[in-house]
Amino acid sequence: MWKNLLCTAILAPVSFGALAASGPAQSYPTKPIRMIVGFSPGGNDDFVGRVVATRMTERFGQAVIVDNRPGAGGNIGAEITARANPDGYTLSSVGSITLASGPSLYPRLGYDPMKDFAYISRVAIGANVLFAHPSLPAKSFSELVALAKAKPKSIRYGSPGVASLGHLTMELLQSISKMELLHVPYKGPAPAVTAALGGEVETGFGASTAVIPLVQAKRLNALVVTSAKRLGPLPAVPTLGESGYPGLVVTNNHGILAPSGTPASVVKLINGEIRSLLQTDDARASFAVRGLEAAASTPDEFRAIVTAELARWTRIIKDARITAN
C-alpha cells in the first residue's frame, strides 16, 4: 500500500456505508475530491496530503486528487481553500505554521485562520533539517554561526518560501545568534534543496521529507534538526537544544482542513478515517522514516493547536522583526 504514496491511487469503489454518519455523509462522496497543498511536491504538507488522499481513495471509491498551489509560504493554497464551496469536495493539507504566521506577515491576508476553516484533524508533527552543501566549511550549527558572523550576508540560505517554517526558523535564529545570512526563497522544499545541490545556495532549512534522502545519500550535510528529539533517520544530527539553544523547538503540525461550513458529518467521517489510518503500523512507519511523527487529533484539538501557534508566532515575528520581504 505504502509503496505508491506519492502517486494518489484511483481504485474501484468500495462500500463504506457502515462508516458514514447520518446526513450528507451517507452519500458522500459521489464525485472526486480535491486536496489542495500550498507547496510544490516533495515536502511535508505534500506527503501528508498524499497519505490521506490515498486512504480516502481506497476507502471511499472516489479519486482524491492532490492539487499543488505553491506560493506565499502556503497562503495561496490556504486562501483557495477558504474561498471554496464548503460541500466536502475541497480539502487542504496544511501546516500550522502557514496559518499561524500569515496574519502577522501579510496585512491583506485573504482569509481568517480561525473563522474560514473547518478543522478536521492533525495528521503528523514535522520538523525541519538545516542542510548544507558539502563545500560549505561549516560542519555544525555553531560553525555556521561563526562563519556567518565573520562574513555577514556572504552565505545564502534557501527556504521553501517566504513565511515557510524554514524561513521563519532561520530568521528567528539570526535574531538570537546575531548572524546575518542572505535569504533566497523558493516555491517549496524540493526546489530549495535542489538549489543547494546545484550551488545556488549554501545552506537552508528544509522539510524532513525533502532533506533526509539527500543527507542519507551524502549529497548534503545535515547540521541540526528543529525537533525536541533527534530524528530517527538522522540519529547523529543534534537538535537546536543540543546546539546551544536549550528549550528551542520549532515544529509544524500538519493536518487536514476544509472550508468553513463543511457539513459536520463529513468532517466526522474524514476524521475517523485519519484516526484509523494512524493506528496502523504501516502508516506510522511510513511517517517515521521521513522524520514525521504520526499524531491524530479531534477537530477541536487541531483548532486549539493552531490557536496556540498563532499566539506564539505573532509574538516571535514581532520580537524578531521578521518580514515577508
Model description:
The protein is α/β, with parallel strands linked by helices. It has two domains: 2-126 and 252-320, Bordetella uptake gene, domain 1 (D-Maltodextrin-Binding Protein, domain 2), CATH 3.40.190.150; 127-243, Periplasmic binding protein-like II (D-Maltodextrin-Binding Protein, domain 2). It contains ten helices and ten strands. Strands 1, 2, 3, 4, 5, 6, 7, 8, 9 and 10 form a ten-stranded mixed β-sheet that branches. It is globular and about 65 Å long. The termini are far apart.
Overall average residue pLDDT: 90
Percent of residues in β-strands = 15-25%
Number of domains: 2
Structural class by sheet pairing and helices: alpha/beta
Fold blueprint:
Blueprint: E1 33-37, H1 44-60, E2 64-68, H2 75-83, E3 90-95, H3 96-105, E4 117-132, H4 141-150, E5 156-159, H5 165-177, E6 182-185, H6 189-197, E7 203-207, H7 208-216, E8 221-225, E9 251-259, H8 264-277, H9 281-288, E10 293-294, H10 299-320
Parallel strand pairs: 1-2, 1-3, 5-6, 5-7
Antiparallel strand pairs: 3-9, 4-7, 4-8, 4-9, 4-10
Helix pairs in contact: 1-8, 3-10
